[in-house]
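Please go through the sequence and fold tokens given here and tell me how the chain folds. Record follows.
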Amino acid sequence: MSDDGRQHTGHERVPSRQRRRFPGISTRAYEHPADRSALVALRKLSGFDTVFKALSGLLPERSLRLLFLSDSVRVSERQFSHLHDMLLDACYILDLEKVPPMYVTQDPQPTAMCIGLDEPIIVVSTGLVELLDEEEMRAVVGHEVGHALSGHSVYRTVLLFLTSLALKVAWIPLGNLAVMAIITALREWFRKSELSADRAGLLVGQDVRASMRGLMKIAGGNHLHEMNVDAFLEQAEEYDSGGDLRDSVLKILNVLPRSHPFTTVRAAELKKWAESRDYQRIMDGHYPRRSEDGDASVGDSFRESAASYASDVKTSKDPLMKLVTDLAGGAGDLGGRVRRGFDGFRSPPSAKGDTAGGGEE
């Protein structure tokens, strides 16, 4: 049971390790600044919910619900009972009153998602269930409950719909460009929302090493005896700081079509947050409440988001981010640095040029 010692319906089989509970916690407590600013702005838009409800007639949500009900296994006290206990516990810890339905679907790929406009549903693959141990899986369930609590399922469903629509209108040049622009923006938001949900998973599992192991297994499979969390985090450091401007551009191109950040990046971001004062304050019981959400300032959220991006640029070791910092600071010889950074894009010099003493510019 959780640390308040209370007995609560459906939680009698919760493991004995004590976990803190966060009554009335606002999603603002764990949301990444970029995710939070977008959500606060959307929630403030008059009629926004009505528009998305109207879309429910176009989106294949009912079809998806029927599909999972008919061709997957619904988690309950009688089916995947250990996952059912984790789901109840995650909702109890994050104080989500209505427990979303959860399904296990046959898929060797380790995946999970939270979708739905009217009501969120959680879907996890058999590949994920078979890959992770109990504590790692608990973090994943908390991750998906965090998505549900933040309302991410609405936008995730829209993203799925628009991705499908883009394929159907690909033959219409301008129509496809317009849809792809929206998809690109949604993907950028969704990548940040994944960082938020990782934080929610940590609040539920309250075991940062288990969260790290889970991400590492998603990247490298069920060979834990062959892997090391610290070495995995070193990969994130190398990814952030390695290469030149060509690699920086390739990083951007690689991440654009993805809905999730790379696993090493997620691990490094989560570790940084777990070591922050913000996380410790939440664990100590000091966090924003949902009752205060109506007073949340859009301007403050955007300023926090801008400050977060600025901090990321300033502290990043990526060559392109360093160049951006230097541009802002008025560093000299930027032209030379840019040329040297992109030298590798040019054709290699001929043997004759080398002999003639052609050197680096």
